[in-house]
Amino acid sequence: MSLFIQIEEVEALSSIYGDEWCVIDEASMIFCIKISSSSDEPKLTVCLQIILPNGYPSTAPPIYQINAAWLRGPERAKLANSLEDLYVEHAGESILYLWVEQIRDFLVEKSQSSDAVPQPEKRNMTAEEEVDDDEDIPDLRTLKLNTDNEHLFLSQSDDDELPPIKHGNAITDRRSTFQPHLAPVVTPRQVKMVLEKLYENKKFASATHNIYAFRIYCEDKQSFLHDCEDDGETAAGGRLLHLLQILDVRNVMVVVSRWYGGILLGPDRFKHINNCARNILVEEGYVGSTVRCSLGLLHKHSVFFC
């Protein structure tokens, strides 16, 4: 029955949105829609990527990801929270149309506000990563989502406490500064709480990029819930998550802030991001002595941290 409802909803959305609606993998129910504020300037655009799990809409929410280099920090969290609120309000119902229009309303409101032009995108894009506006939208033919994201909806408890946040030593290279932050997390809600707390700090909020990754072990499913964010530093989040996987750490979130100093670092920036993360994981006891030794050899021979 769920599949029939999904097919009906997809057909309706395709009819409503036309070329804006894109089928990535019909068999896996993976779709994408490009949403814009309007045809007027300034025009803001995001790409909403969606996976419809087997239980949607009756028992499971859509798995989603929002792509927009200019959308970050508190504004990204605000939009994500509004989508989750809509899902909770309409639990068991088809929700995609409401989500798309909610995002469109958000973009219209943003474009009409005094800070309508998305300056954070320009501030967050170093010369190493500057791209045309159209490149904010990923190649739809190769788009894949991390299906673990569906768990982001499963922790709605208000009982989650803000975990302690540790701040590691900074690395500076050619006027760019990298600083790691770490927090133990056992629910996605705690991930959000940590980010919100960090963004309350003006220095953190002013960083050119705040890259993060987390890895949570779900005892009941005996599997890992994980996700990452580039925050404008393309591929940095994925590399950071890969580091957490290589180290086999669990129930931890690592954030690396970068303040761009005006001089291009090239691939060295990824080395500094991962080294910052590795250092704070070692300092906080998430990495054993055997792994530390192996990491030292890898670093020495530039196998992983290049």
UniProtKB/TrEMBL annotation:
Membrane-spanning residues: none
Sequence ranges assigned to domain RWD in this UniProt record: 8-110
Record GO biological process: GCN2-mediated signaling; regulation of translational initiation
Compartments in which it is found: Cytoplasm
GO CC term, one of those recorded: cytoplasm
Predominant location category: cytoplasm
Keyword tags: Cytoplasm, Repressor, Stress response, Translation regulation
Residues covered by region (Disordered): 111-135
A Pfam family that the UniProt record links to this protein: RWD
InterPro entries: Impact, Impact_N, Impact_N_sf, Ribosomal_Su5_D2-typ_SF, RWD_dom, UBQ-conjugating_enzyme/RWD, UPF0029_Impact_CS
Top-rank taxon: Eukaryota
Assembly with partners or alone: Interacts with GCN1; prevents the interaction of GCN1 with EIF2AK4/GCN2 and inhibits EIF2AK4/GCN2 kinase activity. Interaction with RPL39; this interaction occurs in a GCN1-independent manner. Associates with ribosomes; this interaction occurs in a GCN1-independent manner. Associates with actin; this interaction occurs in a GCN1-independent manner.
Similarity comment: family membership: Belongs to the IMPACT family.
Protein name according to UniProt: Impact RWD domain protein
Source species of the chain: Salarias fasciatus (Jewelled blenny)
Gene behind this protein: impact
